[in-house]
Design goal:
single chain; 321 residues; alpha/beta; Rossmann fold; 2 domains; 5-stranded parallel sheet; 12 helices; 15% strand; binds N-acetyl-L-norvaline; binds phosphoric acid mono(formamide)ester
Protein backbone atom coordinates (compact mmCIF):
# COMPACT_ATOMS: atom_id res chain seq x y z
CA UNK A 1 0.00 0.00 0.00
CA UNK A 2 1.50 3.34 -1.11
CA UNK A 3 -1.19 5.72 0.12
CA UNK A 4 -3.95 5.48 2.72
CA UNK A 5 -6.63 8.09 2.20
CA UNK A 6 -9.84 6.43 1.07
CA UNK A 7 -11.54 3.16 1.92
CA UNK A 8 -10.53 1.66 -1.43
CA UNK A 9 -6.87 1.88 -0.44
CA UNK A 10 -7.45 -1.00 1.97
CA UNK A 11 -9.04 -3.38 -0.53
CA UNK A 12 -11.32 -6.09 0.88
CA UNK A 13 -12.74 -4.83 4.18
CA UNK A 14 -13.41 -8.27 5.67
CA UNK A 15 -9.79 -9.14 5.06
CA UNK A 16 -8.69 -5.89 6.71
CA UNK A 17 -10.95 -6.56 9.71
CA UNK A 18 -9.49 -10.05 10.06
CA UNK A 19 -6.00 -8.55 10.02
CA UNK A 20 -7.07 -6.07 12.70
CA UNK A 21 -8.19 -8.91 14.97
CA UNK A 22 -4.99 -10.85 14.28
CA UNK A 23 -2.93 -7.82 15.35
CA UNK A 24 -5.15 -7.24 18.37
CA UNK A 25 -4.40 -10.78 19.56
CA UNK A 26 -0.66 -10.19 19.20
CA UNK A 27 0.34 -6.57 18.72
CA UNK A 28 4.02 -7.42 18.29
CA UNK A 29 3.62 -10.19 15.74
CA UNK A 30 5.03 -8.09 12.90
CA UNK A 31 7.76 -6.38 14.89
CA UNK A 32 10.42 -7.51 12.39
CA UNK A 33 8.78 -5.54 9.57
CA UNK A 34 9.69 -2.11 10.91
CA UNK A 35 13.29 -2.82 11.91
CA UNK A 36 15.49 0.12 10.87
CA UNK A 37 12.52 1.83 9.24
CA UNK A 38 11.51 5.36 10.22
CA UNK A 39 8.06 6.88 10.40
CA UNK A 40 7.80 10.66 10.15
CA UNK A 41 4.60 12.16 11.55
CA UNK A 42 3.85 15.74 10.47
CA UNK A 43 1.26 17.74 12.39
CA UNK A 44 -0.13 21.01 11.07
CA UNK A 45 -2.70 20.82 13.91
CA UNK A 46 -3.21 19.56 17.44
CA UNK A 47 -3.82 15.92 18.26
CA UNK A 48 -3.97 13.58 21.22
CA UNK A 49 -5.22 10.22 19.91
CA UNK A 50 -3.65 10.27 16.46
CA UNK A 51 -0.30 11.33 17.84
CA UNK A 52 -0.19 8.64 20.53
CA UNK A 53 -1.88 5.74 18.73
CA UNK A 54 0.14 6.16 15.54
CA UNK A 55 3.38 6.33 17.48
CA UNK A 56 2.36 3.24 19.49
CA UNK A 57 1.41 1.32 16.35
CA UNK A 58 4.76 2.18 14.77
CA UNK A 59 6.64 1.08 17.89
CA UNK A 60 4.68 -2.21 17.96
CA UNK A 61 5.97 -2.79 14.43
CA UNK A 62 9.55 -2.09 15.48
CA UNK A 63 9.80 1.29 13.74
CA UNK A 64 11.65 4.41 14.78
CA UNK A 65 9.45 7.49 14.95
CA UNK A 66 10.10 11.20 14.36
CA UNK A 67 7.35 13.71 15.12
CA UNK A 68 7.31 17.24 13.71
CA UNK A 69 4.82 19.85 14.88
CA UNK A 70 5.03 22.34 12.08
CA UNK A 71 3.56 25.14 14.18
CA UNK A 72 5.85 24.56 17.15
CA UNK A 73 9.52 24.52 16.30
CA UNK A 74 9.71 24.33 12.51
CA UNK A 75 9.99 27.28 10.13
CA UNK A 76 6.64 28.67 9.11
CA UNK A 77 5.78 27.08 5.78
CA UNK A 78 4.42 28.75 2.66
CA UNK A 79 2.05 26.46 0.77
CA UNK A 80 1.17 28.58 -2.30
CA UNK A 81 3.27 28.76 -5.46
CA UNK A 82 4.07 32.06 -7.12
CA UNK A 83 4.16 34.23 -4.01
CA UNK A 84 6.93 36.62 -3.03
CA UNK A 85 7.86 35.23 0.37
CA UNK A 86 8.43 38.53 2.18
CA UNK A 87 6.05 37.77 5.05
CA UNK A 88 6.50 35.59 8.13
CA UNK A 89 6.93 32.30 6.24
CA UNK A 90 10.59 31.33 5.95
CA UNK A 91 10.38 28.11 3.94
CA UNK A 92 8.29 26.72 1.11
CA UNK A 93 6.51 23.40 1.38
CA UNK A 94 8.01 22.46 -2.00
CA UNK A 95 11.51 22.34 -0.46
CA UNK A 96 10.40 21.17 2.97
CA UNK A 97 8.58 18.08 1.68
CA UNK A 98 11.41 16.46 -0.29
CA UNK A 99 13.78 17.27 2.58
CA UNK A 100 11.45 15.50 5.04
CA UNK A 101 11.27 12.58 2.63
CA UNK A 102 15.05 12.15 2.91
CA UNK A 103 14.83 11.27 6.59
CA UNK A 104 12.14 8.60 6.66
CA UNK A 105 10.51 5.61 4.97
CA UNK A 106 6.82 6.43 5.56
CA UNK A 107 5.08 9.77 6.21
CA UNK A 108 1.86 10.47 8.13
CA UNK A 109 0.27 13.88 7.54
CA UNK A 110 -2.25 15.82 9.60
CA UNK A 111 -3.19 18.85 7.49
CA UNK A 112 -6.79 20.12 8.35
CA UNK A 113 -9.26 22.26 6.53
CA UNK A 114 -8.97 26.04 6.48
CA UNK A 115 -12.80 26.15 6.11
CA UNK A 116 -12.61 29.30 3.99
CA UNK A 117 -12.38 27.98 0.44
CA UNK A 118 -14.22 24.74 -0.28
CA UNK A 119 -12.38 24.04 -3.54
CA UNK A 120 -9.00 24.50 -1.87
CA UNK A 121 -9.88 22.18 1.02
CA UNK A 122 -11.46 19.49 -1.15
CA UNK A 123 -8.48 19.57 -3.56
CA UNK A 124 -6.35 18.35 -0.61
CA UNK A 125 -3.45 20.57 -1.70
CA UNK A 126 -1.15 19.85 1.25
CA UNK A 127 -1.69 16.08 1.30
CA UNK A 128 -1.29 15.80 -2.47
CA UNK A 129 1.95 17.76 -2.40
CA UNK A 130 3.33 15.28 0.15
CA UNK A 131 2.32 12.40 -2.13
CA UNK A 132 3.86 14.06 -5.16
CA UNK A 133 7.10 15.45 -3.75
CA UNK A 134 8.13 13.30 -0.77
CA UNK A 135 8.95 10.17 -2.75
CA UNK A 136 7.57 8.11 0.18
CA UNK A 137 4.33 6.30 1.02
CA UNK A 138 1.93 8.77 2.65
CA UNK A 139 -1.04 8.18 4.92
CA UNK A 140 -3.68 10.61 6.17
CA UNK A 141 -3.75 11.34 9.92
CA UNK A 142 -6.84 13.53 9.30
CA UNK A 143 -6.55 15.86 6.38
CA UNK A 144 -8.77 18.66 5.11
CA UNK A 145 -11.55 16.29 4.08
CA UNK A 146 -10.87 12.75 5.37
CA UNK A 147 -9.91 10.86 8.53
CA UNK A 148 -9.53 7.23 7.41
CA UNK A 149 -7.62 5.94 10.47
CA UNK A 150 -10.60 7.04 12.58
CA UNK A 151 -13.20 5.50 10.26
CA UNK A 152 -11.31 2.20 10.13
CA UNK A 153 -11.11 2.14 13.95
CA UNK A 154 -14.84 2.92 14.07
CA UNK A 155 -15.60 -0.01 11.79
CA UNK A 156 -13.46 -2.35 13.89
CA UNK A 157 -15.36 -1.16 16.98
CA UNK A 158 -18.78 -1.67 15.40
CA UNK A 159 -17.78 -5.19 14.35
CA UNK A 160 -16.74 -5.94 17.92
CA UNK A 161 -19.88 -4.58 19.60
CA UNK A 162 -22.64 -5.43 17.15
CA UNK A 163 -25.38 -7.78 18.36
CA UNK A 164 -27.05 -8.27 14.98
CA UNK A 165 -25.52 -9.23 11.65
CA UNK A 166 -26.40 -5.93 9.96
CA UNK A 167 -26.61 -3.18 12.62
CA UNK A 168 -28.37 0.13 12.07
CA UNK A 169 -25.72 2.83 12.46
CA UNK A 170 -26.80 6.47 12.75
CA UNK A 171 -24.42 9.32 12.06
CA UNK A 172 -25.93 12.36 13.75
CA UNK A 173 -24.87 15.98 13.55
CA UNK A 174 -24.71 17.73 16.93
CA UNK A 175 -24.11 21.38 17.84
CA UNK A 176 -20.68 22.87 18.57
CA UNK A 177 -19.28 26.30 19.35
CA UNK A 178 -16.44 26.26 16.82
CA UNK A 179 -16.48 25.54 13.10
CA UNK A 180 -15.17 22.00 12.56
CA UNK A 181 -14.19 20.22 9.35
CA UNK A 182 -16.23 17.51 7.61
CA UNK A 183 -13.30 15.06 7.58
CA UNK A 184 -14.63 12.72 10.26
CA UNK A 185 -18.24 12.43 8.97
CA UNK A 186 -16.99 12.22 5.34
CA UNK A 187 -14.78 9.23 6.10
CA UNK A 188 -17.29 7.65 8.45
CA UNK A 189 -19.95 7.78 5.72
CA UNK A 190 -17.53 6.50 3.11
CA UNK A 191 -16.43 3.54 5.24
CA UNK A 192 -19.88 2.60 6.53
CA UNK A 193 -21.39 2.60 3.05
CA UNK A 194 -18.48 0.46 1.82
CA UNK A 195 -18.88 -2.02 4.71
CA UNK A 196 -21.02 -4.94 3.55
CA UNK A 197 -22.99 -5.37 6.80
CA UNK A 198 -23.85 -1.83 7.92
CA UNK A 199 -27.18 -0.05 7.47
CA UNK A 200 -26.16 3.64 7.58
CA UNK A 201 -28.59 6.48 8.25
CA UNK A 202 -27.34 10.07 8.37
CA UNK A 203 -29.29 12.77 10.19
CA UNK A 204 -28.55 16.51 10.28
CA UNK A 205 -30.30 19.86 9.99
CA UNK A 206 -31.26 20.91 6.47
CA UNK A 207 -28.35 22.64 4.77
CA UNK A 208 -25.71 20.41 6.38
CA UNK A 209 -25.68 17.84 3.55
CA UNK A 210 -22.26 16.21 3.22
CA UNK A 211 -20.57 15.83 -0.15
CA UNK A 212 -22.54 13.07 -1.96
CA UNK A 213 -19.28 11.51 -3.09
CA UNK A 214 -18.92 10.29 0.52
CA UNK A 215 -22.56 9.56 1.36
CA UNK A 216 -23.67 7.64 -1.74
CA UNK A 217 -25.61 4.59 -0.59
CA UNK A 218 -26.59 6.04 2.81
CA UNK A 219 -30.12 7.07 3.77
CA UNK A 220 -30.57 10.71 4.82
CA UNK A 221 -33.28 11.33 7.44
CA UNK A 222 -33.85 14.95 8.51
CA UNK A 223 -36.02 13.96 11.48
CA UNK A 224 -33.47 13.07 14.15
CA UNK A 225 -35.97 11.08 16.20
CA UNK A 226 -36.97 8.92 13.23
CA UNK A 227 -33.30 8.35 12.43
CA UNK A 228 -32.57 7.22 15.99
CA UNK A 229 -35.46 4.76 16.16
CA UNK A 230 -34.10 1.22 16.31
CA UNK A 231 -30.47 2.36 16.05
CA UNK A 232 -27.82 -0.10 17.27
CA UNK A 233 -25.10 2.55 17.17
CA UNK A 234 -25.28 6.35 17.43
CA UNK A 235 -22.23 8.14 16.06
CA UNK A 236 -22.36 11.80 17.04
CA UNK A 237 -20.23 14.47 15.39
CA UNK A 238 -20.38 18.14 14.65
CA UNK A 239 -19.36 19.49 11.28
CA UNK A 240 -19.55 22.96 9.84
CA UNK A 241 -21.70 23.74 6.82
CA UNK A 242 -20.29 21.72 3.89
CA UNK A 243 -21.50 24.35 1.39
CA UNK A 244 -23.22 21.84 -0.86
CA UNK A 245 -26.66 23.49 -0.99
CA UNK A 246 -25.44 27.01 -0.17
CA UNK A 247 -21.79 27.43 -1.32
CA UNK A 248 -21.37 30.79 0.45
CA UNK A 249 -21.97 29.05 3.80
CA UNK A 250 -18.97 26.71 3.43
CA UNK A 251 -17.20 26.26 6.77
CA UNK A 252 -19.70 28.39 8.66
CA UNK A 253 -21.89 27.56 11.65
CA UNK A 254 -25.42 27.97 10.29
CA UNK A 255 -27.24 25.96 12.95
CA UNK A 256 -26.89 26.10 16.73
CA UNK A 257 -30.00 24.10 17.56
CA UNK A 258 -29.35 22.49 20.94
CA UNK A 259 -32.21 20.01 20.51
CA UNK A 260 -29.68 17.98 18.47
CA UNK A 261 -27.46 17.37 21.54
CA UNK A 262 -27.50 13.63 22.26
CA UNK A 263 -29.09 13.11 25.70
CA UNK A 264 -30.73 10.17 27.49
CA UNK A 265 -34.07 10.89 25.82
CA UNK A 266 -32.42 10.63 22.39
CA UNK A 267 -30.80 7.34 23.38
CA UNK A 268 -34.15 5.99 24.65
CA UNK A 269 -35.40 6.07 21.03
CA UNK A 270 -32.69 3.57 20.00
CA UNK A 271 -32.42 -0.21 20.21
CA UNK A 272 -30.32 -0.03 23.39
CA UNK A 273 -27.84 1.71 21.08
CA UNK A 274 -24.16 2.20 21.75
CA UNK A 275 -22.86 5.76 21.79
CA UNK A 276 -19.76 6.59 19.73
CA UNK A 277 -17.68 9.71 19.11
CA UNK A 278 -14.17 10.08 17.69
CA UNK A 279 -13.13 12.46 20.53
CA UNK A 280 -12.22 15.10 21.53
CA UNK A 281 -15.82 15.82 22.49
CA UNK A 282 -17.37 18.85 24.16
CA UNK A 283 -19.85 17.72 26.80
CA UNK A 284 -23.07 19.67 26.99
CA UNK A 285 -22.92 20.50 23.28
CA UNK A 286 -22.47 17.20 21.44
CA UNK A 287 -23.53 14.86 24.24
CA UNK A 288 -24.62 15.03 27.86
CA UNK A 289 -22.47 13.71 30.72
CA UNK A 290 -25.05 11.00 31.40
CA UNK A 291 -24.85 9.55 27.90
CA UNK A 292 -21.08 9.64 27.51
CA UNK A 293 -20.62 8.12 30.98
CA UNK A 294 -23.31 5.45 30.48
CA UNK A 295 -22.48 1.75 30.07
CA UNK A 296 -23.59 2.08 26.44
CA UNK A 297 -20.86 4.60 25.68
CA UNK A 298 -17.98 2.91 23.84
CA UNK A 299 -15.86 5.99 23.14
CA UNK A 300 -12.84 4.61 25.02
CA UNK A 301 -12.61 1.20 23.29
CA UNK A 302 -13.24 3.13 20.06
CA UNK A 303 -10.20 5.32 20.76
CA UNK A 304 -8.20 2.23 21.77
CA UNK A 305 -8.88 0.75 18.33
CA UNK A 306 -6.97 3.64 16.75
CA UNK A 307 -3.80 1.71 17.65
CA UNK A 308 -5.18 -1.31 15.82
CA UNK A 309 -6.37 0.46 12.67
CA UNK A 310 -3.02 2.20 12.38
CA UNK A 311 -1.12 -1.04 12.94
CA UNK A 312 -2.86 -2.64 9.95
CA UNK A 313 -2.12 0.40 7.77
CA UNK A 314 1.56 0.62 8.74
CA UNK A 315 2.00 -3.13 8.38
CA UNK A 316 0.64 -2.96 4.83
CA UNK A 317 2.86 0.00 4.00
CA UNK A 318 5.97 -1.70 5.42
CA UNK A 319 5.21 -4.85 3.43
CA UNK A 320 5.11 -2.77 0.24
CA UNK A 321 8.39 -0.88 0.79
C1 LIG B 1 -11.41 17.77 15.01
C2 LIG B 1 -12.47 17.60 13.94
O1 LIG B 1 -13.63 17.81 14.21
O2 LIG B 1 -12.14 17.24 12.82
C3 LIG B 1 -10.64 16.51 15.26
C4 LIG B 1 -11.44 15.28 15.46
C5 LIG B 1 -10.65 14.04 15.35
N1 LIG B 1 -12.04 18.20 16.23
C6 LIG B 1 -11.72 19.31 16.85
O3 LIG B 1 -10.93 20.08 16.36
C7 LIG B 1 -12.38 19.60 18.14
N1 LIG C 1 -9.90 11.27 17.09
C1 LIG C 1 -8.77 11.93 16.84
O1 LIG C 1 -8.21 11.87 15.74
O2 LIG C 1 -8.29 12.66 17.89
P1 LIG C 1 -7.02 13.61 17.90
O3 LIG C 1 -7.42 14.85 17.13
O4 LIG C 1 -6.77 13.88 19.34
O5 LIG C 1 -5.88 12.94 17.22
Amino acid sequence: MKTFINVEDLGNLNQALAEAQEIKQDRFKYQHLGRNKTLLMIFFNNSLRTRLSTQKAAMNLGMNVIVLDVNAGAWKLETERGVIMNGDKSEHLLEAIPVMGCYCDIIGVRSFANLKDRDYDYAEMVLNQFIKYSGKPVFAMETATVHPLQAFADLITIEEYKKVERPKVVLTWAPHCRALPQAVPNSFAQWMTAAPDVDLVITHPRGYELDPKFTQGARIEYDQRKAFEGADFVYAKNWSNPGITTPADYGKITCEDMTWTVDTEHMSWTNDGKFMHCLPVRRGLIVTDDVIESPNSIVIPEAANREISCSVVLKRMLEAL
